Structure formats: C-alpha cells, structure tokens
Amino acid sequence: MAHRGHNVTCVDIDEKKITMMQQGISPIYEQDLEELMYINEEKLGYTTDYKSVYKNADAIFIGVGTPEQPDGSANLSYIATVARQIAETVEKDCLVVVKSTVPVGTNDKVEQFIQDFLVNDVNVQVASNPEFLAQGTAVRDTLEAARIIIGTNSIKAENTLMAIYEPFGLPIVSVSRRSAEMIKYAANDFLALKISYMNDIANLCELVGADIEDVARGMGFDSRIGSKFLNAGIGYGGSCFPKDTKALDYLATLHGYELRTVKAAIDVNNDQKILLYKKACQRLITFNGLKVAVLGLTFKSGTDDLREAPSLDNVPLLLAQGADIYAYDPIGSENFRRRFPETSSEREVEYSKGSIHYVRSAEAALDGANVCFIFTEWGEIKAVMPEDYNRLMRTPLVYDGRNIYDVNEMRESGVEYYSIGRK
Ligand code: UGA
C-alpha cells in the first residue's frame, strides 16, 4: 500500500513485533519485504496505539487471523475485537475493509457489530477484499496480483476501494460482499482440490506403473487445466488450504449441504501427509535406535511457517517409534525447536522414546543416517547430489515427499529411493 503511494500505519497488539518493525525488521521471513519497508519508510508507521490511528483513518484494513476451531469452523474472535475497537474510536466517516479470510456473511455481521457499538455519529461501511498472496512470494504476489477482488454493498464503498487500488494498475473484479467472501474460499479450495487430485492420481500411477511427473506435464499443456499446482507430493500444508477447506466444509454443513468434493480433498490430504512414513514402516522392522535424517520442516520453501507442515505429523510418529532424528531446515529449525526441543529440560511433555537434534546442513543430517525423509523442497536440499546420499548415509534409503530427484539418477547412485507417484 505504501509502495503505491498511500500513508499506512500498521497496528498490532504485540509490542515485540511493532518494535521490530519500527527498527525495519520484519517479524516473519518474507523475501523482499524488509527492502520494501525501507524504501517506503516515510509513508509507513507502526504502533500498538490503535486509538490514535483509527480515529482519523480513511480506510482500516483488518488482517487478523481467523484460525481453525476444533469443529473446523473459523474463529472470528479477533475480527470481533478489532471491529469493536474501531466502533469505539472512529471520529470520522471511514471504510472498514476485511482482508482476513472469513466465512460468507461475516462482513454483514461486522457492519452490524460496528453499528451496534459505534460511539460517534459517523458513517462506517464495511467491504470485503480477500487476499490472494502466497507465503514466500508475498511481495511479488501483491504488486503483481492476477486480480484484486472487492466486495461492497454500496457505490461509496466501491469507489473508495477502487481509488485505493487504482495506483496498482491491476485488474479489479467488483462483486457483492458475499460473493467476494466466497471467491476466497472457492479459489483456495479449488487449488487444494487440484493438489489432492494429483496426489490421488500419483498414488494410482505408482500402482499401475505410470509416472506422475510425466502425467502432470502432459496435462498442464491444456490451458483449461493449466500447468500450475499440479505437483504431487506430501500433501498441502500451511495456514490456508487446510483451514479453508475445513471452514467451507463446515459452512456447507451448517446450511445442510454436503460439500463432497472438498471433503474428498481433505481426506486425501490427511492420508498423503503420512504416506511415506507408512511406506517406510513396511520396509523397516523398526525405527528404534535408527538415525533418521529429516530434510525440511516448513510447509513449503521460502517461509519459516510451520503451520500444518507435514513434518509436524511425521516427526511425532518417528519419535514414538524411537527414532534418533537429525533435522535440517535452512529457516524453520528455530520455530520447530520450540515445539520439539532437543533437551528434556526445555520440554513440556517428555518424548516417550526417540530424540531430536537440529543441524546446520543437509550433509550433517545425512551423515551416518539409516534413513532420510525429505519434507520440503528448499534449494539447499535440492543442492544435495544423489551420490552424496550414498556417500554420507550408513544405508542410503531415501523417502522424498517432494519428488526432488530423478528416479534413475538416484538408483544409479546406489540410493534406494521412494518418491510420490513414480516407480
Ligand atoms: C495459499 C494460496 O496459494 C494463496 O493464493 C492464498 O492467498 C493463501 O493460501 C492464503 O489463503 O492466504 P500458501 O498457503 O502460502 O498460499 O502456499 P501455496 O504456495 O499455495 O502452498 C500451499 C501448500 O500446497 C504447500 O504445502 C505446498 O507445498 C502445497 N503444494 C502447492 C503442493 O503440494 N503442490 C503444488 O502443486 C502446489
């Protein structure tokens, strides 16, 4: 927003994050973000004092989390908190823009909620403006977005949002608030479905002797299918697809409808995440006392985010089997260590068996290992050559959840190699 000429003040309740940002440090790992913060320093402010910011704002964008609740529904308590703070502090007409992913109908409720708590005699409208950036490519996805979706219920709100996005020079799709809310879920769930479909086909490929990479390549040339998001693998993770598939399924159930396609995507993904672990269990008598190299912990490369990462499903299974894990991730190790500390004094709950160590290179993880699992497609992991597995590991047995290597090259290097959808 600042890069496109607007004056922006970022508000958060977390003082630590705000202090970091005031010093030009991004609290998350995201390529090019700090540079952009630096370039636009003059147009950017950071504060925990929301009152001073909300009272004079022309537009307030809400981008708080809407995490999954145990029943699959989205937790809207953070949205409600912010909406109430806005209602109690705005002193002039303003547009509240909901960027957070929220179930269809939430914008209507937010508008009513603000109305109910409004202190001053001002006009506050609410618009939906879902976000389509992906982690790791956030800056590029924002500045070069394929489209901007704006959902409004009045000409005034539509004009304000149009004016805000005009300097971006990107296609704008203007729809109703409910349609905008639905576009976000429908788009994410379609991509999740696309991945689960490819994972399902990959598993069948293995059984019938076809190669999923070739199949995906052949499919992708058809522009009706498109070549993106056809990568079979260890299942989708992250803060969005797992949560948004479950939330849409929940919304459908609330309305007495069964969303069978999305349910199927969720089911396939749950199985896919532990597919390689299960294969390894068939191959090995036990993990007890084995040195297990885990390469990659984050849900994808380019981010330090661990939410719904396949590593979180697999590491506890391996530990419970008594594995001695040596994990490497170029960015995500520190976050992972907080959940799975190395030393018992740091642990809230003791591992019943097994142990975990964090190392600074893929080579260190592989050194003397009996088996290796690849969970993330980091460049640093791709740089490990097939012969390195043979040279470094005690027994070169590799389970690759990201299809990083050529099957034949691995075999020729003497590696017993299992991947997804390829014999
Ligand atoms: C996703 C969407 O791609 C964004 O458009 C959306 O804005 C965002 O969610 C959101 O709702 O905020 P993100 O979760 O950051 O973005 O990451 P993706 O690149 O979409 O990857 C999600 C998961 O799918 C990862 O675990 C990735 O490894 C997996 N994936 C992706 C595959 O397994 N195969 C593919 O072909 C592509």
From TrEMBL:
Keywords: NAD, Oxidoreductase. This is UDP-glucose 6-dehydrogenase. InterPro entries: 6-PGluconate_DH-like_C_sf, NAD(P)-bd_dom_sf, UDP-Glc/GDP-Man, UDP-Glc/GDP-Man_DH_C, UDP-Glc/GDP-Man_DH_C_sf, UDP-Glc/GDP-Man_DH_dimer, UDP-Glc/GDP-Man_DH_N, UDPglc_DH_bac. It catalyses: UDP-alpha-D-glucose + 2 NAD(+) + H2O = UDP-alpha-D-glucuronate + 2 NADH + 3 H(+). Residues 293-407 form the UDP-glucose/GDP-mannose dehydrogenase C-terminal domain. Belongs to the UDP-glucose/GDP-mannose dehydrogenase family. The keyword Zinc-finger does not apply. Its EC number is 1.1.1.22. It comes from the Bacteria. It comes from Desulfosporosinus nitroreducens. Pathway: Nucleotide-sugar biosynthesis; UDP-alpha-D-glucuronate biosynthesis; UDP-alpha-D-glucuronate from UDP-alpha-D-glucose: step 1/1. The lineage of its organism: Bacteria, Bacillati, Bacillota, Clostridia, Eubacteriales. It is an enzyme of class 1 (oxidoreductase). Pfam families: UDPG_MGDP_dh, UDPG_MGDP_dh_C, UDPG_MGDP_dh_N.
